[in-house]
Amino acid sequence: MSPLAALLLGSAGMSLIALVGGLTVLLPRRWLQALLLPLVALAAGSLLGGALFHMLPEGFAVLEPRQAGAWIAAGFTLFLALEQLLHWHHSHHQGLRGAAPGAEPVAALILLGDGLHNLTCGLGVASTYLIHPAAGVATWLAAAAHEIPQELGDFGVLVHSGWRPRQALFWNGVSALTFPLGALLAWGLRGSNLLAPLVLFAAGNFLYIAASDLVPEIKARLAPQEALVGFAWFAAGLLLLAGLARDAG
Question: Looking at residue 130, what is its pLDDT?
Answer without folding.
Answer: 94
